[in-house]
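Pilot study result, target chain (503 residues):
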Amino acid sequence: MVTFVDEVTLHLRAGKGGNGCVSVKREKFKPLAGPDGGNGGHGGDIVLVADPQVTTLLSYHHGPHRSAGNGGFGMGDHRSGALGETLVLPVPVGTVVKDPDGDVLVDMIEPGMRFVAAPGGIGGLGNATLATPKRKAPGFALLGTPGWEGDVLLELKTVADVALVGFPSAGKSSLIAAMSAARPKIADYPFTTLHPNLGVVQAGDVRYTVADVPGLIEGASEGKGLGLEFLRHVERCTALVHVLDCATLDPGRDPISDLDVILGELGAYPVPEGQVPLLERPQLIALNKVDVPEAKDLADLVRPELEARGFRVFEISTVSHEGLRQLSFALGDIVERHRAEQQAAPAPERIVIRPRGSEKEFTVRVEGGSYGTFYRILGVKPERWVQQTDFQNEEAVGFLADRLDKLGVDQELFRAGAIPGATVVIGEGDGIIFDWDPSINSAAELMTAPRGHDPRMFTDNRRTTSERRERYHERMDAKAEARAELEAERLAQTSWDEAEDDA
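Predicted structure:
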């Protein structure tokens, strides 16, 4: 049995960005020819697309957990990681996307609309991209950031031009089956319709859609019966048709009392802000089942009172099709006028999104607890930079410290009253905790070479001309001294030999 689902909670996890690569190019006669680590691939997004071919959220009811592909890791020789596969989720036209707090994120009322519900993580940069004239051979790379993970609520609101409302078993399903090619379930017991049915009606040159809403009873706006669950499907309709059963055998019921109950429930239902209240929309009355003689007499009796209230009344029969043509053309005129009014209405104000360069990119919040005061840094950039940092690599930690310093974090900590050794947390929750020491800007002071300088990269020991000249003179002086010493020893030996001969 096919179940209609119009509300579901999705648990989404976007793809994680791939890590960047740390690599040094090695060739023959060039064992260390420079950094060539590639970037990591971005994680895949989760995108919702309004698809006219999808009519229910049933598939997401059975499988609410959805994940996108992760980005690939960067590789040597400047090879970037593969991009994570984007997950596209088709949803019915008219789906409202909300966050867990109930705030509307997007209303997908147009076919083909796309909404990125869960953006993927950013791929980390490789050491080739991080190389600069001052950092010629970075010994680190950035890590990929995790993708968005959380819940979104999908709520389906049927997009139709006309809604059929009325008591259970009033003949709404039979009416939509007689006016269109829709084939809803029809039976002689209440609440046969368990989900809205859509049908397309052609009235002359006008084509419009009709929605058969499950039956309403007294108290539907308060949750009784099935009405409250499906009243949302009436929100988007241009006109309402009150289908009144003139052949009902239930005691205490008649077309006038049924209409009063339905009007009371429609008036008690709150529509979203900016929409026309349900009772202020065009409304027609369809007195159904006039093929029954007693029902025909009752319809003739109540029709003057309904027309006195300002309603346009049609006596119809879904069995003999009496009055259906007049009703369909009357609804076509209402829909056509509404569409013309929408086209003539001024275009909505264009929304211009400007860069937020003037806004602060982070905040410093002073918090306290049983262990003393600490300072929490919140902001998109600092939190993302922390996620990208490999804290097992001193050079990567130093790079993070430089980025935070250029962003102005040290100055803000000073203004907030932080002193050397104060506890600083980056991000919400536990975050990344460290002791702040402004005297050491980075870990570069612990390195014997400048940041990004690898002594192995510089194997050329060739001396300059002045150095060769100086070295040449030193050698010549040393040779002259050695010859002088030898000459002195020779003369001394000769004198000694002559003295022995004289003796």
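One observation from the pilot: The chain has eleven helices and 18 strands. A full batch analysis is planned for the follow-on phase.
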